[in-house]
Design goal:
Length: 258
């Protein structure tokens, strides 16, 4: 039976939400199907199972993460250089460097084994708000990317699994690059399915503009008279818009559409 909002009488009381999401097995999808438009502060993970607070106890492998971020810098720079060349951006000055890779964030995603994977989602369909995302995934799998309609295969299945390959990184184009390239590079819609057999871990590095950067299609892209598809937006406003709503496919980018 479909859940109703009455099942979750108080959305801010963690024990009620835990009961609904985990013990009753509705999952986070159940919450959204019940009509909840924003998630309560504490949900899913019972307090005793949460990772320690970073501000008080430090990350379990902070040094390794920082070193990993440092090591990926070369590949990020190289990728952006190549991508920029195709847009006729041959010189990456300070302003462009900031808009392309002025801030970075690393996440540690942990997907616990799920007793009812069909009743929930791992991560809902979305595109990243980054310029690029450099994703390291373990051997479990579960990441899917959406193939654009014109590339659709005959069997109508346009979600393609991204199989884990030892020693490889997954590179996603994000919305910021879609905006700055005036749509020449398209951010990839993706999702992660829950897994009933094992835990899964992924480590994305989000390469972003600085929050105070104004992002818009690069003048070089519009030089031949091409019409701008996107207006100038303050990057922090763009990110705020993303986090204000539930994952909704590729709709975030409409925020910058002219
Ligand atoms: O876990 C993954 O493979 C992808 C996670 C993801 O899409 C994200 O963190 O934005
Ligand atoms: Fe993502």
């Amino acid at each position: 039976m479909a859940p109703t909002l009455a099942n979750i009488t108080s959305t801010t009381e963690p024990s009620k939400v835990t009961e609904f999401v985990i013990h009753k097995g509705f999952g986070v999808k159940g919450l959204s199907e019940a009509g909840l438009r924003s998630l309560p502060k504490q949900y899913i993970q019972p307090i005793q199972e949460r990772a320690p607070d970073r501000s008080t106890s430090g990350w379990p492998c902070g040094d390794e993460l920082l070193e990993y971020m440092k090591k990926t810098e070369t590949v990020i720079k190289k990728l952006l250089e190549v991508l920029m060349k195709r847009l006729n951006v041959t010189k990456i000055d300070k302003e462009k460097e900031s808009a392309l890779m002025g801030s970075k964030r690393i996440n540690l995603n942990y997907y616990p084994i799920c007793p009812n994977p069909d009743l929930t989602v791992g991560v809902g369909r979305h595109s990243d708000v980054s310029t690029l995302t450099i994703l390291l995934q373990d051997e479990i799998g579960g990441l899917y990317v959406k193939v654009e309609e014109e590339e659709e295969t005959n069997n109508n299945n346009n979600w393609v699994h991204v199989p884990p390959m030892k020693g490889s990184l997954v590179i996603n184009i994000g919305d910021a690059l879609q905006i700055m390239s005036n749509g020449r590079y398209k951010s990839v819609e993706h999702r992660v399915v829950a897994n009933g057999k094992s835990d899964r871990i992924s480590v994305p590095i989000f390469v972003n503009p600085r929050p105070s950067d104004l992002i818009a299609p690069f003048p070089q892209v519009l030089a031949n008279g091409e019409k701008a598809l996107y207006k100038q937006v303050l990057y922090s406003d763009y990110v705020k818009h993303f986090f204000r709503k539930a994952h909704d496919g590729k709709q975030t980018v409409d925020f910058a559409k002219i």
